[in-house]
Amino acid sequence: MGFLKSLFGPKEAKMVSVASLGAHFEVPSGQTVLEAALNNNVKFPHNCTVGTCGSCKCKLKSGRVSALTDFGYTLSQQEVQAGFILACQAVPKDALTEIDVESDGVVMPEAEKFTAKMVSSESMTHDILKVTLQLDRPLLYVAGQYANLSYEGLPKARNYSFADAAHLKGRGEVSFFIRKVPGGAFTEALFDGKLKDVSFEVDGPHGNFHLHPGSAPMVCIAGGSGLAPLLSVLETARRDRVDRPCIMLFGARTQADLYAMEQIKELAAGWAGKFVFMPVLSHEAADTSWTGARGLVTQFITDAMPDINWAEAEGYMCGPPGMIDAGIASMTEQGMRLEAIHYDKFTDESHTAKMP
């Protein structure tokens, strides 16, 4: 009788507690932690809901969860081992699950929808454009965040980070560094000049990548179009006279793939504290005039500022998954705390699965 009751009787309620948000709620069968949180009006950080953006990253304090898709696609191996999960892909297995959402007191603006027109499109490299949109009203964001761009006829919105310094009253014009994706419906049309008169919908801001308060040395690493959020963060910090020591590494394939060099030069000259910039090329031909660093950008983290106190430093990275994972491994090996590493990993949704 007890066996039959266990099969057909009412299932034990699954509860989730999030002390940092002051929340305690039930997760019905068939729902993820994030879905249940939002259904209970809990302001849980999120955006994509399919396990790619990492906005809903949180730490499992007690209890067990099952993952709809592998947390390791978006999170690093070190984070998974340390107990970090994605709320949008986590289903509780125990009666009570306790999680913690990181908070440093920085208030993120509420996302809104805007309409916009393209006012300029500037070629930065052979496959990266700087696109500037004029909005119907100012958009308030924290430096490092991103927006979802869409227009009529585009099946799914695309996510791009703001490339400009944030403004206290918002910005009426916003810029993005957009890399061409071969065969991509949006970027093929963009690079062919077919979107000049299109009315865009801008949904934002989103994301939790930002400069955390403090005086710790900053180790910043960008790859490709990942330069956008880092420039937004650093330009905002320069304007605010942040005087923290800063290492900035920029990884590209060849000299032709380096861009915004003059802007970075001005950034370094105007930085209130020590600023070291090192571009690193991974595929530059051996017989060219390049005399700088060659290899993977994450191999030169310690070379840029050898006297840094790694136990006190913070890491900020934006770019492809391989670079982010290698950077986390390198910095933690040097003694940086995992919790002090912040990143925006440029992923896609090829790994995602439907909820059973």
Structure notes:
There is one protein chain. This protein has 356 residues and is an alpha/beta fold. 19% of the residues lie in helices and 33% in strands. Strands 11-10-13-8-9-12 form a six-stranded antiparallel β-sheet. A six-stranded parallel β-sheet has the order 17-16-15-14-18-19, sandwiched between helices. A hairpin with a 4-residue loop joins β1 and β2. The two termini are 29 Å apart.
Describe, in short, the structure shown.
The chain has 356 residues and is α/β, with parallel strands linked by helices.
Q: Hey, roughly how much beta strand do the residues contain? A: 25-35%
Strand order across the largest sheet = 11-10-13-8-9-12
N- to C-terminal separation? 29 Å
**pLDDT < 50 runs, ≥5 residues:** 1-9, 349-356
Helix and strand run:
HEEHEEHEEEEEEEEHEEHEHEEHEHE
Helix fraction bin: 10-25%
